[in-house]
User: Which sequence fits this backbone?
């Protein structure tokens, strides 16, 4: 099946996109797909889930609006000299990518999380377009779920949000917000030879020496902070093939209240919550709490206004989570200081610079540079924060009640956390190596406790601020009041 409106012209994978393939090849347990689970209410008037045939028909009609989703890799492997390119899959079949499944009784959250763990444990088939969607039925009260899996070389977390818009119902006459086409840096419509590709990268570097200088400083900052041999803990070590998946749901307004009252950003609050959960997990395991903290890789979206949703437009910050610091407020303050320092130092350009330089390297050095950019020596887990749709969505008439994110585990990483915001809610998706971290529920409970503690601290500060404001108003009122008239003498 060749979808109408799709060109046969090939596009080469970027260096970063190819790096995810190389990492997956090097470590079979490191499945480099990301994903999400949309929790659906019953279709009004039907009292049950959408039909898988309707979903296939919907996606088949809309797939031309997203690049890559009917394309496969020209080669299943990537190397430093020649990266694969995207080619149209003339044998594309929508039923190969969209199917249905049913939960066992009683079909509750535990059964759904177990099913998701198994679903996300299976790698995508590189002989076909690198995505899959499953309509999961037999949830209670006519509810269902739509689970989506997309390879990281196809899209990053922000780009994958486009798929939610793709399946969402639209107002009558509304058009899909088609993402802009990729720019010429990554969207050349010919199969470039390795020599041409290296020449293009070298030209970009020569034409922008200011960017090269900033990138070099970012690399130095990254290497200084990262390659210090972080302490081994329970969450680091060889990663297996099986995944567990659990979620935490909190009001987005509470994270914003923490931001307003305690300072920093919502992302600082997210990192503090994850750090509190890790502290509880390590203490539960009897592990020492590393004084230098546990380094988290925080993806930073560098997608410009002209960038499309396909491929990866991300860089990274490396932030130590201060698990050895006592007190939720003190940990939050330490994270605020660390993120501010790293942003000022330009560290987020370091990973991007290393990946870009790998495109200029001889083949023998290419994999070494790419692996340095994503080495577990630089960080121990990924914590990502994706901004999802603000307005409530429906899929084939079924209301989307929640969106649950899934983040891949890299080599030697046994835990990862993603957060997505949707319609005023913030949902943490916690992913773990199912065999190495069977007690992931301890991590989840610790994150919930840290969120509650920070929420209480924020409300305490808010109450104190309001009380101080009332006292100031009262003092101003006392000074402004006219003196009382003297009492009349009898």
Assistant:
């Amino acid at each position: 099946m060749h979808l109408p409106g799709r060109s046969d012209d090939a596009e080469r994978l970027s260096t970063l996109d190819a790096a995810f393939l190389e990492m997956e090849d090097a470590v079979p347990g490191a499945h480099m797909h990301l994903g999400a689970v949309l929790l659906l209410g019953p279709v009004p008037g039907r009292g049950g889930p959408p039909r898988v045939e309707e979903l296939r028909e919907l996606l088949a009609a809309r797939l031309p609006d997203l690049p890559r989703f009917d394309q496969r890799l020209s080669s299943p492997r990537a190397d430093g000299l020649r990266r694969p390119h995207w080619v149209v899959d003339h044998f594309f079949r929508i039923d190969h990518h969209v199917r249905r499944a049913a939960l066992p009784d009683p079909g509750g959250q535990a059964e759904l999380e177990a099913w998701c763990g198994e679903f996300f444990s299976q790698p995508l088939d590189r002989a076909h377009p690198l995505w899959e969607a499953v309509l999961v039925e037999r949830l209670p009260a006519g509810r269902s779920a739509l689970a989506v899996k997309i390879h990281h070389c196809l899209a990053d977390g922000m780009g994958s949000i486009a798929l939610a818009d793709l399946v969402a119902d639209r107002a009558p006459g509304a058009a899909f917000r088609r993402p802009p086409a990729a720019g010429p840096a990554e969207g050349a419509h010919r199969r470039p030879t390795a020599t041409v590709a290296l020449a293009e990268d070298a030209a970009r570097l020569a034409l922008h020496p200011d960017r090269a200088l900033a990138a070099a400083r970012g690399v130095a900052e990254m290497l200084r902070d990262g390659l210090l041999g972080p302490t081994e803990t329970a969450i680091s070590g060889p990663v297996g093939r099986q995944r567990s998946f659990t979620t935490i749901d909190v009001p987005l307004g509470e994270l914003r209240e923490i931001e307003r009252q305690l300072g920093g950003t919502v992302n600082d609050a997210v990192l503090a919550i994850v750090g509190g959960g890790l502290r509880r997990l390590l203490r539960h395991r009897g592990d020492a709490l590393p004084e230098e903290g546990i380094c988290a890789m925080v993806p930073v979206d560098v997608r410009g206004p002209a960038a499309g949703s396909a491929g990866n437009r991300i860089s990274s910050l490396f932030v130590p989570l201060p698990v050895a610091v006592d007190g939720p407020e003190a940990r939050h303050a330490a994270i605020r200081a660390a993120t501010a320092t790293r942003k000022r130092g330009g560290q987020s350009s370091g990973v991007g610079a290393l990946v870009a330089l790998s495109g200029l390297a001889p083949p023998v050095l290419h994999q070494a540079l790419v692996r340095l950019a994503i080495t577990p020596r630089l960080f121990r887990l990924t914590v990502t924060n994706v901004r999802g749709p603000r307005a409530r969505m429906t899929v084939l008439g079924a209301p989307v009640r929640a969106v649950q994110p899934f983040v891949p585990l890299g080599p030697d990483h046994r835990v990862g956390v993603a957060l997505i915001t949707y319609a005023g809610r913030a949902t943490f998706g916690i992913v773990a190596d199912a065999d190495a971290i069977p007690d992931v529920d301890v991590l989840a409970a610790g994150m919930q406790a840290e969120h509650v503690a920070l929420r209480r601290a924020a409300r305490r500060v808010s109450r104190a601020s309001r009380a101080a404001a009332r006292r100031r108003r009262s003092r101003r009122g006392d000074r402004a009041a006219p003196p009382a008239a003297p009492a009349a003498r009898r």
